[in-house]
Amino acid sequence: MSITIKTLEEIERMRVACRLASEVLDFIAPHVKAGVTTGELDRLCHNYMVDVQHTIPAPLHYTPPGHTPYPRSICTSVNHQVCHGIPSLKVLKNGDIVNIDITVIKDGFHGDTSRMYCVGEPSKQAQRLCAITYEAMWLGIRTVHPDHHLGDIGQAIQAFVENAGYSVVREFCGHGIGRDFHEDPQILHYGRKGTGIKLQPGMTFTIEPMINAGRREIRQLADGWTIVTADHSLSAQWEHTVLVTETGFEVLTLSDGAPPPP
Ligand code: MF3
Ligand code: CO
Ligand code: CO
User: Is the CB–ligand 1 distance for residue 62 below 6 Å?
Assistant: First the structure.
């Protein structure tokens, strides 16, 4: 697959899909409380997407090569789960941190975004991990400019995260996005400045660093999807979809409830 440069019409459709994805995260926020199951969060988001937004939840039945079809409409990754946690009967408890990852399809285009939610009051260490990961995502976003290279994004994220004492997951990355959920190029969250292709206006891609409090190694659970830290340390992730503009970047996955940039 090659990189798609979006036309002005396509960018307008990306803006709509991306805002809708962010609005699902706004909608679910008050429901993320001790006692709720991740399956209930999935049901609420699914119904909101399908019945209120008239969007399609892209994860449902999504089947990338080497995978079984994904069985739910959102991903919920709790504590040491890194990404792709499958909503289930698992009950959230006070002190948990949970990533909710939403991808909607509207008018043929995908919008992909995720946030961390605190259940009650997590430990200071857990809150710091979430905050550092959020700042890392934004440092990556702020490097996006047509004079800059793909490796500049990864370098900015990796340097900041490792300086904070955390590690960057290598096996999963950001991705081009548009008519397809996962398009070229891959957006690594580690790397070296000046390496990789140059960014071009009209490219749309995600930046979604997965950051572990301990070692960077991961394992996949027997469900074929859920990724966890090998050392059981906590993991956090935030995700935005961004557009490369003539002068820099535009974050597409914003809405009234999105936390402000750091
Ligand atoms: N939304 C995830 C991403 O950011 C992908 C989830 S794939 C799924 O790329 F099948 F697990 F939903
Ligand atoms: Co993504
Ligand atoms: Co996502």
Answer: yes
